[in-house]
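Sequence only, no structure available. Ideas?
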Amino acid sequence: MKLRPQSAHIVSMQDFRDRKSPHIIRLAPELDGLEMLYSNDTAKERMFSLKILFWGLYSDGSVAGLVPWLRDIVSCPSLRDPLNGHWQGYHDPGIDRIFMDAPAHKIAELQSSAEYFRYEGNNASDIVQELPDTLGTHAVLTHNGFRSFLLTEVVSWRLLSGGQLQGLLIDESRLSVTPVLPGDPCLYPASSNPEFKYFFQHRIANKIKERDPETLSAMYTLID
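Reply:
I predicted one. Tokens follow.
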């Protein structure tokens, strides 16, 4: 099965106001280690965990956990691709509790912050929020079909008025001061780089850096 790269698409303000599907209007970082649980078709008897990066408030009032997944950041409940996994719930590893709905304290945080800021952009590409990446997410860049590749850290994530989320990387040619913080002019969206392929959290990224055979094999499967 081939995964087709998804191109960035900026729609007009009227487009996203008129569309029927809910879109993200506010983000809150997950700072207590809550996880997404998922299974996949290769090991149906097992469950795997992935750290949640953000909680997102949608235009219909719903709240869902968000995780970097392949080329995007996606809501946990929408993870139903047969190749990549099926969402099984949220997990609090501190008390080993599995639950299906976003926690009440995150819902309250998002609702109160959305009520306070009441942000409405003039077009779909206006920036609503830019938050730091707290999970050590990396982007994989390659120009030759993974014969060689570069892993680079995602510094921050940007929420646009149209509900899109962009992972931001450092443009070394524009780097002038360190540390690089959200909002720095040297940051650019990974999706605008033709060499960008996937996002990976730090645990997988470190295994790729170490050339772990099993991890590399799984990564190469994505491009078969």
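Helices lie at 13-18, 104-117, 202-209, 213-221.
Hope that gets you unstuck.
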